[in-house]
Amino acid sequence: GALLAAFNWHAIFVALTTLGLGFLVLSHLTLTETLPPERRRPLHPRELVRGYATFIRTPGTLLPMAIGCASFSGQFAYISDSPFVLLEGYKVSERAFGIYFGSTAFALMLGSILGGRMIRAGRSPDVMIVSGGVLLAISGVAVAITTHLGLGIPGFLPPMIVYFFGTGMTGPSATALALAPVAHIAGTASAAIGFSMMMCGAIAGYLTTKIGGSSPQLFSLVVMVMGLLAFGLTLAVAARHVRQQR
Fold first, then answer.
1. Percent of the chain residues topping a pLDDT of 90
2. Among candidates 117, 227, 212, 206, which has minimal Cα distance to 162?
3. What digits encode the pLDDT tens for the residues 70-126?
4. Are 167 and 75 in contact, with CB atoms under 8 Å apart?
5. What pLDDT does 41 receive?
6. What confidence category does residue 1 fall into, taking pLDDT thresholds of 50, 70 and 90?
7. Distance of alpha carbon 167 from alpha carbon 203, whole angstroms
């Protein structure tokens, strides 16, 4: 928002490119391979396909991944459509848009940090994903109601902040649960999860923008559906783990 107000839309992509290159260099200099040499696999297409197939066939991996895909779809719907909804639908200023968008990004980071710390503190991932799923469902329903009632930004932004916080809480636990059965191919499994989430998010973002445009009402329906879907999946995963422990 600040870049857009000071320069033009080209500056956003210049900043993103600069940051991306900076993080690439930083990761190359500071992140080292932690996997012991005897457990490393050759970077060969056949090995990658075999690893992806193992991940997909292993019980207990797909449902947690689907949670991430659902919550991520609602998140990307907002990322893609919020410029149209906020700038054109609600007629907010570019500076205000930056503040509103930044508040949801901060909520996502806060939820992710809190979720990760609670897992390291010994909280069950099942409890974490259900808690995050509850937030996703409540905020999704809330934003659908408030936008249809025409409550404006005060009715639109708070539920979206809660939704992003719930996404941050759910993500680490869902990923941990999806990786647990395939710890021996955690890198390949992480790539499969990341690809699936990005693909679902891209499709949701495109369709929301293409169909909904600047309509807060249509956008909110997407968020509500994704929030309720994620919540239902969290209950299914938690119930499955309860049955396994009996």
1. 61
2. 227
3. 999 999 999 999 989 999 999 998 889 889 999 999 999 999 998 878 877 877 878
4. yes
5. 73
6. low
7. 18
Q: How many CB atoms lie within 10 A of CB 91?
A: 11
Distance CA 222, CA 84 (A): 15
Half-sphere exposure (CA, 13 Å, Cβ side) for 101? Answer: 22
DSSP codes, 139-153: HHHHHHHHHHTT-HH
CA atoms within 13 A on the CB side of 210: 6
Pick the CATH number of 44-245 from 1.20.1250.20, 2.60.120.10, 2.70.70.10, 3.90.226.10: 1.20.1250.20
pLDDT per position as a tens digit, 26-77:
998 898 877 777 777 777 788 888 889 999 999 989 999 999 999 999 999 9
What is the rounded distance in angstroms from the CA atom of residue 175 to the CA atom of residue 22?
A: 26
* Separation CA 176–CA 84 (nearest Å): 35
Confidence (pTM): 0.86
Q: What is the CB neighbour count within 10 angstroms for residue 209? A: 19
